[in-house]
UniProtKB/TrEMBL annotation:
Gene3D superfamilies: 2.40.50.100, P-loop containing nucleotide triphosphate hydrolases
PANTHER family cross-referenced by the UniProt entry: SPERMIDINE/PUTRESCINE IMPORT ATP-BINDING PROTEIN POTA, SPERMIDINE_PUTRESCINE IMPORT ATP-BINDING PROTEIN POTA
Protein's UniProt name: ABC transporter, ATP-binding protein
Transmembrane segments: none
GO molecular function: ABC-type ferric iron transporter activity; ATP binding; ATP hydrolysis activity
All copies of domain ABC transporter, residue ranges: 6-238
Alphabetical keyword list: ATP-binding, Cell membrane, Ion transport, Iron, Iron transport, Membrane, Nucleotide-binding, Transport
Organism: Alcanivorax borkumensis (strain ATCC 700651 / DSM 11573 / NCIMB 13689 / SK2)
Domain of life: Bacteria
GO biological process: quaternary ammonium group transport
Length: 349
């Protein structure tokens, strides 16, 4: 097998004797884009900082291109790791122009090489023509692009981005996230990115790591994180859905109060087991001819689709996503059928 570009082996680190990242292992292949996703405080930034060489490691190790850069008794300085970083605290130099900011990591190159690379990077992030401006003369989104150009300029082996768009409003974030994916793929730069935003992670990444309390719960493709989550935490973090109580009938079917839920299961299910089975909004299909009718408690029009909240039993809510022309209103019944393709079920404890 090809040597991974980045590998974390049972990594643990923390602050003041307190462990914040625990037994975390992952590998990233050259050219891949990966996102660490998880709730606030779960250790995403600490993991990134350890990879950058900004935090010591208490046990385990970090290797880049097969070379150990961090271990309990070893810490290669950040500037010798071949990394590019866009961290929130690594702001632009305010007294340098855009061009000089981007040229910062290229001091060892000749003047003409440097100028050429600066222009290429600024074009790449669509800031051509703004090279003589100062950071305070740019919008927040433009400043983030300069920071990205500066990190890309020296062609790092690995790029680390910590919530690069956190300070921007949602619209700008979403469009920049898409653009970022294009830029990273054109530059073929291996990237590990931290975000809170599940949609941003899915849209950008080849691989997503979901973290909880310092542990990596799953390291997988966005598709598997969503459709074949390893546990209930990942399932709930990855998107909307409702867990219904049920009993496994066979490996592909669970009986529930709303009927049979069928699909392929990630893990084998033993007949007779009591489980909680996941229904995502797109698994619940509006169908006028279906016998199952559930009262609508809320109707959220989102433009492209409608998200219906349907009451099940005394106080459970099932979500149903329909096209935006469905005109059933709150208080009425919506007829639905279940149309799962994947069976996501976890044993009831
Ligand atoms: N310099 C520090 N000293 C002590 N504790 C810290 C320090 N930095 C972070 N922590 C703690 O370590 C834990 C993990 O923090 P970290 O910043 O890695 O989380 P995160 O997942 O990146 O969170 P967020 O999404 O909010 O940025 C938190 O409990 C935090 O309070």
């Amino acid at each position: 097998m090809k040597e991974p570009l980045l590998s974390l082996n049972h990594l643990a680190c923390g602050y003041h004797q307190q462990t914040v990242v625990n037994d975390l292992s992952l590998t990233l292949a050259a050219g891949e884009i990966a996102c660490l996703l998880g709730p606030s405080g779960c250790g995403k930034t600490t993991t990134l900082r350890a990879i950058a060489g900004l935090e010591p490691v208490t046990s385990g190790s970090i290797s880049i291109l097969g070379k150990t850069v961090s271990g309990p008794h070893q810490q290669l300085p950040p500037n010798q790791r071949g990394l590019g970083m866009v961290f929130q605290e690594h702001a632009l130099f305010p007294h340098l122009t855009v061009a000089d900011n981007v040229a910062f990591g290229l001091r060892h190159q000749s003047r003409s090489q440097r100028q050429e690379r600066v222009q290429a990077c600024l074009q790449r992030v669509r800031l051509g023509g703004l090279d003589q401006r100062y950071p305070h003369e740019l919008s927040g989104g433009q400043q983030q692009r300069v920071a990205l150009a500066r990190a890309l300029a020296p062609q790092p082996a690995l790029l680390l981005l910590d919530e690069p768009f956190a300070s921007l409003d949602l619209d700008l974030r979403r469009s920049l996230a898409q653009e970022l994916g294009d830029i990273l793929r054109q530059e073929k730069v291996t990237t590990l990115l931290v975000t809170h935003d599940q949609e941003e992670a899915f849209a950008l990444a080849d691989r997503v790591g979901v973290m909880q309390q310092g542990r990596l719960e799953q390291w997988d493709t966005p598709y598997n994180i969503y459709h074949a989550p390893a546990n209930r935490f990942v399932a709930e973090f990855a998107g909307y859905g409702t867990f219904l109580h049920g009993t496994v009938h066979d490996g592909n079917t669970v009986h529930t109060s709303l009927g049979d839920v069928t699909g392929r299961s990630r893990a084998p299910l033993q007949p007779g087991t009591e489980v909680e089975v996941l229904l995502r909004p797109e698994d619940v299909i509006a169908d006028e001819s279906a016998p199952l009718a559930l009262p609508v408690t809320r109707r959220q029009f989102t433009g492209a689709s409608i998200l219906y909240h349907l009451r099940v039993g005394a106080n459970e809510t099932l979500l149903c996503q329909t096209d935006s022309h469905t005109n059933v209103v709150e208080g009425d019944n919506l007829h639905v059928r279940l149309g799962t393709k994947h069976l996501v079920a976890f044993e009831t404890h």
